[in-house]
From TrEMBL:
GO terms for molecular function: ethanolamine kinase activity. Keywords: Kinase, Transferase. The keyword Kinase applies. It comes from Sedimentitalea nanhaiensis. This is Thiamine kinase.
Length: 293
């Protein structure tokens, strides 16, 4: 849909109290989002079809969003129809990596993530997906080759790294993961925190969310040890630290290959090439550290 088509479709939704003027929200790198005010309040409209190349299926995002709201970690879903979801707008501040790293904030964020892992499944209805990062990496590799990506020469090496990291990350526990713990998906309304955007949610190892939280937000080694000890309520063993380091590398590798695929598939205005280069450098540094650690 073109922007005028999107705006016209949003205006025609039956959930509004009176006429509305949708305003685009900048910053999304997977979806297009609009803010809408009507006589009853303010809302966010998420616009997006299924994105099979990224394993994003909107039925899954919708059911996860509803379950996350019921679990007390996400805004309410107000209305939905194919490719459009209307959510409660939270008057809040979007976090930055600096916010996430703050010693007063990190415990609150870890509690929010823990509640997502623990409580969302009790409210989840219907089919649910698994988000297996190692399968995603292999599938991204196949997509990059099939679509003649400029990064195609790197695919055998990167997929090989992913396969080795899969072997190093087990044995696995399974929780319901958010699987996209960027600072931009964390909101602070001054009283409580919110976890938004469930595009990639699904059952997964908790180490993927913990590793993603650390790698996306620059946690220090001391903060990572604290996070693991607090989450698992036990001293951090060398074995756990090794599994976690492998999964953190996998999170960085997935983000890198997500960006490579987005370079050739996304219509959103964003410098994916620069994002690829940044994440590839971060992955290689983390992987070298993992191999030499």
């Amino acid at each position: 849909m073109t922007p005028p088509d999107i705006v016209a479709r949003i205006r025609a939704l039956p959930c509004w109290s009176g006429p509305v003027t949708p305003e685009p929200i900048e910053g999304g790198i997977t979806n297009v989002n609009y803010r809408v005010r009507d006589a009853s309040g303010i809302f966010v409209v998420r616009v997006g079809e299924d994105i099979p190349e990224h394993h994003v299926m909107r039925f899954n995002e919708l059911s996860a969003s509803r379950a996350a709201h019921a679990a007390g970690v996400a805004p309410a879903v107000v209305y939905s129809e194919p490719a459009l979801t209307v959510l409660e707008f939270i008057e809040s501040r979007t976090m930055t990596p600096e916010d996430v790293r703050h010693p007063d904030m990190l415990p609150r964020i870890l509690d929010l993530v823990t509640r997502c892992h623990r409580d969302v499944p009790a409210h989840l209805h219907g089919p649910a997906l698994i988000f297996w990062v190692f399968h995603v990496i292999r599938d991204y590799g196949a997509t990059l080759i099939a679509r003649d990506s400029s990064h195609g020469a790197l695919v055998p090496e990167l997929v090989g790294f992913g396969n080795a990291l899969e072997r190093a990350s087990g044995p696995f526990d399974i929780v319901f993961g958010h699987n996209d713990l960027l600072a931009a998906n964390l909101l602070d309304d001054g009283e409580r925190l919110w976890l938004i955007d469930y595009d990639y949610s699904g059952f997964n190892s908790p180490l993927f969310d913990l590793g993603g939280l650390a790698s996306n937000n620059g946690l220090s080694p001391a903060q990572e040890d604290w996070m693991l000890e607090t989450y698992f309520a036990a001293p951090v063993t060398d074995a756990l630290r090794h599994r976690y380091a492998a999964m953190k590398c996998a999170a960085l590798l997935r983000e890198t290959m997500w960006s490579m695929v987005s370079e050739i598939t996304s219509d959103i205005e964003f410098d994916y090439a620069a994002y690829t280069a940044e994440n590839l450098a971060r992955f290689r540094a983390a992987h070298d550290s993992f191999l030499n650690g």
